[in-house]
Structure formats: structure tokens, C-alpha cells
Amino acid sequence: MPKYYLYMRKSTDEEDRQVLSLESQLNELHEYAKREGLEIADEFIEAKTAKKPGRTIFNLMIKQIESNGVSGILAWHPDRLARNSMDGGKIIYLVDTGKLVDLRFPTYSFENTAQGKFMLSIAFGQSKYYIDNLSENVKRGFRQKIRRGEYPGFAPLGYTNDTKNHSIVIDPDKAPFIKKIFELYAAGDYSLDELKKITDRLGLIGKRGKPVRKSELARILRNPFYYGMMLVKGELHEASHPPLISQKLFATVQEVLENRGKPMKKGIIKFTFIGLMKCKCCGASITAETQKGHTYYHCTKKLGSCESKKFLREEDLLSQIDKIISKVHIDDETKNKMISRFEALAHEESKSSLSLSRQVQDRISELDKKMERLIDLFVEQEISQEDYKIKKMKILNDKQLLKEKLGEIEKGGGGWLEPSKNFVSTCNEASYVARQETPAAKRDFLKIIGSNFLLFDRTLFISYSCPYSFVAETDPAEKWGG
After folding, report:
1. Which end of the chain is less crowded, N or C, counting CB atoms within 10 A of the terminal residue's CB?
2. What is the pTM assigned to this prediction?
């Protein structure tokens, strides 16, 4: 009775799936061998794709055939033996040299003749063509999906996959938490460890049903998906899903991440208001030092002699800052009246905003043309792939900013409504910031409402930014009267 090696393969490759499982193949092959009177000398079973050479079990079988010699190989179909030209060539060569006398397949008839070997080579070629063509179709579909702005994967935390409409939508339960994460980190007052504690308190649960890990938070903060883009294989693409945050907020978070990644010098104590103020007398920077448990601010005198000799204790500095912040306070009633008035003006102005909207749309069209020219340059190999990615990222980010501006115009009748409402809301928060005991929050608020912070002896001077200067300079007794 002729002896055969039984070979079975079940591919792990998505593009090379077959209907029969290993168990089904084994049953079918044993029944075929019994029916045809074939003796199975050994069985070789593996789960691996045959697209590329290098299958361990297959190569072991080939070596044994070359050294020991058997009558033939029994397999379900020629494509189980090879889907690449090298492995297919090995089989035909073994038949040519007489190491293999026969090949048996329940689904394919082989004769060890010149015509039979020719037909077998065609069968191997068809198997390779099938997998190559299928692979190219998959890649083509993948590229087309990217061009449509569809993310080719599972939605990140804060979004869900809408399987019915084949799209990605905002998760109403988790999206507010993700947005808050970005806003908190952008302020620069929280480390990733502190942010992790906050998300734990908020009860934010990750995709696997467990609390979000610190490493996952870092990935979220670096993911452009949240401002309406998607990063696929290291390249930025436009996306069709709705953004959770603005590109500006995302850029701020990246700056904070970059700065936090820089190593801090050992032995240096971080003082809250260093870097904020200059000496009014000589223009030098203001430094700080700790004495008897208290922090004192004073001129560094690095620009030469200075008439300012006095030290300002941090508690006294905070008292002055609270008064400075309180000057821009607007109460709740006034805030609501002003916002209502702004909205009425914006409604009246909506018609005139059409012209501005067209201008922004024209600029977006110019960027689209610029992108087409960039692609042409890349295709013609006039720029490197690295330069192409850098220039493409800049164009896409510029376009995203314009799209955000267009959205503001359409919502706010010219783009001024939201900034105006934010201004009033900021003023409304002034008294709360002044009352709370968080120096870092006060520093951030100062940078919003003013600039050119000068210290002379024990007095802090500030130049209020417009329009906060208008609020600060209004007499409290007459403020917003009528």
C-alpha cells in the first residue's frame, strides 16, 4: 500500500479563510484515504497563512520527503499546500525529481505527467492570484474608506460604532468626561497621576469594563481623533465623525504634554508666580525664596542695581491678586442680560455673516487645491515621504481650524458671539476664582484678563486686556446700571 503524508492547513489570515475547519478536513481526508486505499505515514497539521514562505510544519514535511521519501502527499486542495510561488515550486520540483510520485486531493485530480504538472502549476498560480487579488481588493477598500473619512477600526473611548449606519457617533454618557479630561489637562495644573484619580472619582470606565489606566489617558490626550482627524499608519487624515474638542484645545494639551515630558532640574522649588512678573523699577525678572515657612517675591537685580529693596510675602501678593480679579466680576443677573442681548444682535447680524462664511469656504477650497498639488508632487517623487507627511499635517490642521471658524460663524452670526459669551462667563467666574484657595488657578485667570504684570516694592501692577479693561475701569456704583 502506497504511503502518504497527510497535510492540513487552516489559515489565520483574514484574506485566506476557508470553509472547512481542521477537524472537518481531517475527517474528510481520512475517509478519502480509506476509500482510495492510501496508507497515511504521518500527519502534518498547522494553522498559518500560505501567502509567504516560511511555514514551519510545511518545511519539516518537505525535509522529510527529501530525506526519507514517501509515495505522495494527501491534502484537501492544492491551495492548502501553497499560495506562493516558492512553495509551489518546491512541490513541483519534488515531483520532477521523483521524490514525490503522487499528489492526492479530494477536490482536485492530479496526474504525474507533463500535462498534469503543468495543470498543477496553473492551480498553484491561481491560488496565488486569488490571494493577491483579494489582498489588493481589501487594501483598495481600506484606502477608499480612509478617503471617505471613515475610521477603519473600533471607536475610541467617548465614541461608539454605529453598526447599523456603519459610522462612528458620540457616546453621550462618556463624551462629557473625555472633554473634561482635555480641559483639565490643558490648564497645566494636573499630572497624569492626578488626572487618573479624577477619572476614578468620576467613575469613567474604559472599553474593557475597567477604570481607565494612566497609559490609556496618555493615549487619549495624544489622539487627534477627538478634534475630528484620524491617525492611520502614522499619517493624519480628515475624518467624518463629529469632533469632541477644538483643534486649539488639542494643540494646548500637546504643549502641556511636551513640557511635562522635559526633565526638571533637581533641587529647584517651583513657585507659582515665578515667570509671571517683572520688576517695575529695573525690568528684571521677579524671583522667590522661602524663609521661615513663608514664600517671598523680590527682584532678581540681574540687570544691575535696583531701587526696589522690599520683599513681598505670597499671602499679601494673593490678597492683591484677589482684588485685581474681583474688579472684572459681573453678577449672574447682568451676565444673563448681556448674553441675551448678544444673542439678539447675532440674530440680526446673521445675514451679513454669509459673506464672511463664503470667504472662509474659499480659503478651505484653496487648501484642498494645495493638498492636490502636494499629492502630485509626492506621486512624482519630487518630495520625500517625510516632507509629504509634515506638509500634509499642516494643511489638514489649517483646514480644521477654518472648519471650526466656519462653524462658529454659522452658529454665532459672524464668529463673535461665542467669544463674547465666553468673556461674560469668565467675568462671572471672577469672584469664585478670587475666593478659592488655588494659587495656580488665580495665576491662569490673571493671564486671561491681563498682561504686563509689574512688581514695585510690595505692590503689583497689571494692564487689563481688552475688553476686561472696560469692566475693571467701570465704577462699581454705576456698573451695568440701567
Report:
1. C
2. 0.46
373 and 440 housed in the same domain: no
Q: Identify whether residues 135 and 45 lie together within a single domain.
A: yes
Tell me, yes or no, whether 364 and 316 share the same domain.
Answer: no
pLDDT in tens, 419-472: 888 899 999 999 999 988 888 889 989 999 999 999 988 899 999 999 999 999
Q: What is the CA radius of gyration of the chain?
A: 35
In whole angstroms, give the CA distance from residue 91 to residue 140.
32
In whole angstroms, give the CA distance from residue 78 to residue 60.
Answer: 18
Total length of the chain: 482
Identify whether 339 is part of a domain: no
Alpha-carbon gap, residue 116 to 13, rounded angstroms = 29
Q: Are residues 27 and 136 in the same domain?
A: yes
Joined together, the cell numbers standing for residue 181 give 479630561
- Kindly state whether residue 152 falls inside one of the protein's structural domains: no
CA–CA separation, 105 and 4 (whole Å): 12
Q: What is the pLDDT of residues 275-285, one digit of tens each?
A: 889 999 998 99
Count of structural domains, the chain? 4
* In-domain check, residue 480: no
Nearest to 103 by CA among 126, 125, 119: 119
377 and 242 in one domain? Answer: no
Range of the domain at 163: 159-260
Give the CB-side neighbour count of residue 44, counting CA atoms within 13 A: 23
Q: Is residue 382, in this structure, part of any structural domain at all? A: yes
Burial 242-274 (b: 16+ CB within 10 A, else e): ebbbbbebbebbeebeeeeeeeeeeeeeebbbe
Task: Report in angstroms the alpha-carbon separations of 168 from 72, 94, 138, 222, 346.
Answer: 53, 53, 21, 19, 32
What's the rounded Cα separation, in Å, for the pair 131 and 86? 15
